[in-house]
Amino acid sequence: MHPFQTAIADALGTAPTDQPKVRLTGAGTLPACFDVTGLATASVSAAAQELAAASGVEDVRVDRRLALKWFDMTLRPQGWQMPGAWDPIAGDYAARDGWIRLHTNAPRHRAAAMSVLGCPPDRDAVARAVQRWDRDALETAVIAAEGCAAAMRGLSDWACHPQGMAVAAEPLIRWDETGHCDRQTGLSGLRVLDLTRVLAGPVATRFLAGFGADVLRIDPPGWSEPGVEPEVTLGKRCAGLDLHTDADRAIFRHLLSQADVLVHGYRPGALDALGFGSDTRLSLNPAVIDVSLNAYGWTGPWRLRRGFDSLMQMSTGISAEGMARGQADRPVPLPVQALDHATGYLMAAAILRALRVRAATGRVLRARLSLARTAYLLTSGGAQDLSPPLAPERPADLAPEREETGWGPAQRVRFPVTLAGHPPRWPHPAGLLRRHSAAWRAPA
């Protein structure tokens, strides 16, 4: 077994002899200074293996090439264009003593960065302002203003950092037992309440939606992520609730009371502030499988810090290693947001594992994961020379059917996982947020 597969199996608490064997097909690599190909294959295979075990199916296959393509954008619009993934200000900037990345896709995060830099929202003006700062001081100031930023650190710098050491001591998946119940729920009609946004959580719930789960995504008023909505809404019903209002809080309590799974990516304490802390969630639904993620880990001084995949690559040494090995003059990230995608498939595997445990023993489990811990898994495999790029896309990579998305027709890359020869069936095409009612689908 690949070391990543062994680590993931240990984290899930599974033995290879207890699981259906995944048959790997296809070939290809991604050009990265870490084994992104191995991480993609291992994480997708783990989710596929748990899916097969939960479904009682022995024939489960994963196409390596397609798995790598699903670590990137998968939609191919016909007659229209997808919005750009990044805000014009987001990116890497040279400070006085190194590099820093500003993440400004959310308007409030952009406003925070601009308030610290004291300049107009113009990329050239931002670049000039950043040059007057030391990178660590600017990182600290943007974070204090409730924005998102990450100074570039080397692998050894992160390994010695208090947060890096805290993350290294954490399990890849942290399990807690929260109760006991006799609920028996299969994948068909599994009710998954999705409170996640960019990008790992939506990957997990998208996987479940393709294989029978009823996924209901909830977004607050005004939230949008146009660059990724065509990816993260596939297969789901998407509703909106304002959890600051009494009426919508009552709707949410009802939804949670009937959910089989709750998936959320709020920072620790954020749901508590809305009145839905862990004890409240369990009192509303003692049988719910609660799976959550955060950015920088669950212990250590940065456990409450906002973060995203691109920031994590800067903090943990990945971008610095890419810059050094590529002899580049600026940070070189991974070719895909591998931490997000891998964590998403690990979350899906954890949900399916918890479902099987609940069905077999009645034990109700909670699982916690983080982007930083997935980064530690990746970098612990060691750096490497760049591998050859994935071969250009070909017609056979695309699913034959046309997807009528909320923005226009498109084709999508074929999904890498098949179960008993069958690909996933997405009950809803990708579409706009908040287009459905906040209610569970009536039983068939």
Spell out the blueprint of helices and strands:
Layout: H1 3-12, E1 22-25, H2 36-55, E2 60-63, H3 64-69, E3 75-77, E4 91-95, E5 98-102, H4 107-117, H5 123-130, H6 135-144, E6 149-151, H7 155-160, H8 162-168, E7 174-180, E8 191-195, H9 200-210, E9 214-219, H10 229-232, E10 237-240, H11 246-257, E11 261-264, H12 270-273, H13 278-284, E12 289-294, H14 309-315, H15 318-325, H16 338-361, E13 363-370, H17 371-380, E14 403-404, E15 409-412, E16 417-419
Parallel strand pairs: 1-2, 8-9, 8-11, 9-10, 11-12, 12-13
Antiparallel strand pairs: 2-16, 3-15, 4-5, 5-6, 7-13, 14-15
Helix pairs in contact: 1-2, 2-16, 9-16, 16-17
Characterise this structure.
The mean pLDDT is 95. With 444 residues, this protein is of the alpha/beta class. It has helices at 3-12, 36-55, 64-69, 107-117, 123-130, 135-144, 155-160, 162-168, 200-210, 229-232, 246-257, 270-273, 278-284, 309-315, 318-325, 338-361, 371-380, and strands at residues 22-25, 60-63, 75-77, 91-95, 98-102, 149-151, 174-180, 191-195, 214-219, 237-240, 261-264, 289-294, 363-370, 403-404, 409-412, 417-419. The strands form four sheets. It has a seven-stranded mixed sheet. A three-stranded mixed sheet has the order 1-2-16. A hairpin with a 2-residue loop joins strand 4 and strand 5 (98-102).
